Structure to design on (485 residues):
């Protein structure tokens, strides 16, 4: 069995470590931060009223069967999952509201809110979404990147028709959905991969299907507890996890990965290296001879976050609430710098995503812990260190304009910008999902097997993509590749 070094203790790194240790490999993990979890971050705030706990990364758990298989295959128990209904409450510029839920019940809610024609449109799109999901699961999400497979030579004609290579998510929505609110709802799913729906591939239709077909879930105590469960699973399998220990570089002997060099100069030999870091950071910064990474330079959108301690209870707020802007195109123009060639800027009138968990484990009695997220350009094009405070004021104004004025009920606010994410995770620019999922190759992220023999990549910046279940699937793909030799 091999000696494996894992760089980074995010969900991908810990998942890969658990799988490899369960298979009999000797596994060590090195994490620069003081705690595990990577982008599955947590923030705790002590106040006179009590303790507030926030997830600062993912806030929605989907495809629970992926996590169940991971824990079952490594000898662990399950997770304390709570089903959400609604999965998301959508508030549109005209004041209408639509609560998403699983299966055909969602179409029934669409009919009640927007009429029978809108529901019929959604059902037609939903049938196509099922075909896209089946093709994506069969050919993409559970398989390594294979040029012949991705070129379509191994695909069924029906699968290719459903995936619609060359079409955008916006184009698909405008073909199938007449109601502009449903188009807006569909286009939001492009942001799950950090992409502009006007350029994102139509195949991203698989994302809403996964969320609505298999449900949205919450972990009691916050999604950060997933990292605790993975750490416990790793340690029970004999994995040595070193926190507060940064990796300076990946060592290469001859042409093969041979271990890592830590920031203090210590050399750790290994037969195999698994990098749970942004692919651009790996290829540009960690290898002794940087690899070409031009395709990885187009970054996904970032996230601008407010963590709010709010007095009292707020009528009309759900666990997840999305407040849409009047002009969604203006938002994407601002984030991606596509308006008349202008560079990215802070969004003046953004869509706002709010998470408020009704969970006594994350907030004191009589208070709410608000996680507020808006789309943002990565650090670099925008100087978020200087722009952050003013933008935080603007986001609170937008909340008030859309019916949720909490400014006079704030106990505190804490701001996290793309610059903070870049500093915490070494994700270049603080881009949440690494490379943007745009164009014909939008589903093709860097492969899990690196060009350097003995080096493998896991996490949201590589195949099959971002989001907790896909990151865990990347770990399974890598463990299978290593096991296959």
């Amino acid at each position: 069995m091999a000696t494996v070094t894992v760089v980074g203790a995010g969900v991908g790194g810990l998942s890969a470590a658990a799988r490899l240790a369960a298979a009999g490999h000797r596994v060590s993990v090195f994490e620069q931060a003081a705690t595990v979890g990577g982008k599955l971050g947590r923030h705790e705030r002590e106040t006179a009223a009590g303790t507030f706990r926030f997830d600062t990364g993912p806030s929605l758990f989907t495809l629970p069967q992926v996590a169940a298989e991971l824990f079952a295959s490594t000898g662990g128990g399950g997770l304390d999952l709570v089903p959400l209904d609604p999965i998301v409450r959508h508030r549109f510029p005209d004041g209408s509201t639509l609560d998403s839920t699983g299966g055909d019940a969602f179409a029934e809610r669409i009919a009640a809110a927007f009429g029978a024609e809108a529901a019929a449109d959604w059902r037609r799109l939903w049938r196509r979404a099922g075909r896209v999901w089946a093709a994506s699961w069969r050919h993409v999400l559970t398989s390594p990147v294979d040029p012949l497979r991705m070129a379509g030579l191994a695909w069924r004609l029906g699968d290719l028709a459903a995936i619609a290579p060359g079409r955008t998510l916006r184009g698909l929505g405008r073909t199938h959905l007449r109601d502009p609110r449903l188009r807006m709802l569909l286009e939001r799913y492009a942001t799950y991969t950090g992409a502009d729906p006007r350029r994102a591939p139509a195949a991203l239709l698989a994302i809403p299907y996964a969320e609505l077909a298999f449900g949205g879930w919450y972990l009691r105590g916050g999604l950060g507890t997933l990292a605790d469960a993975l750490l416990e699973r790793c340690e029970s399998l004999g994995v040595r996890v070193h926190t507060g220990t940064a990796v300076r570089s990946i060592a290469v002997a001859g042409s093969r990965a041979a271990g890592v060099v830590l920031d203090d100069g210590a050399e750790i030999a290994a037969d195999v290296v698994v990098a749970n870091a942004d692919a651009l950071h790996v290829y540009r910064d960690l290898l002794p001879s940087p690899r070409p990474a031009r395709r990885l330079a187009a970054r996904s959108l970032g996230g601008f976050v407010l963590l709010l301690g709010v007095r009292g209870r707020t009528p009309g707020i759900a666990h997840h609430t999305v407040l849409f802007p009047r002009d969604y195109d203006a938002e994407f123009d601002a984030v991606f710098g596509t308006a008349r060639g202008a560079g990215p800027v802070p969004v003046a009138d953004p869509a706002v995503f709010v998470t408020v968990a009704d969970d006594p484990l994350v907030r004191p009695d009589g208070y709410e812990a608000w996680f507020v997220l808006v789309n943002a350009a990565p650090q670099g094009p925008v100087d978020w260190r200087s722009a952050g405070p003013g933008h935080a004021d603007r986001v609170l104004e937008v909340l008030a304009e859309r019916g949720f004025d909490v400014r006079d009920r704030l106990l505190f606010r804490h701001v996290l910008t793309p610059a903070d994410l870049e500093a915490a995770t070494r994700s270049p620019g603080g881009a949440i999902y690494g490379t943007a999922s745009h164009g014909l190759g939008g589903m093709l992220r860097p492969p899990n097997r690196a060009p350097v023999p003995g080096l493998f990549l896991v996490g949201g910046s590589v195949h099959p993509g971002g989001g907790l279940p896909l990151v865990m699937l990347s770990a399974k793909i890598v463990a299978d590749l290593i096991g296959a030799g």
Remarks:
- The chain has 15 helices and 19 strands.
- The chain has a mean pLDDT of 90.
- Residues 9 and 345 are 32 Å apart (CA to CA).
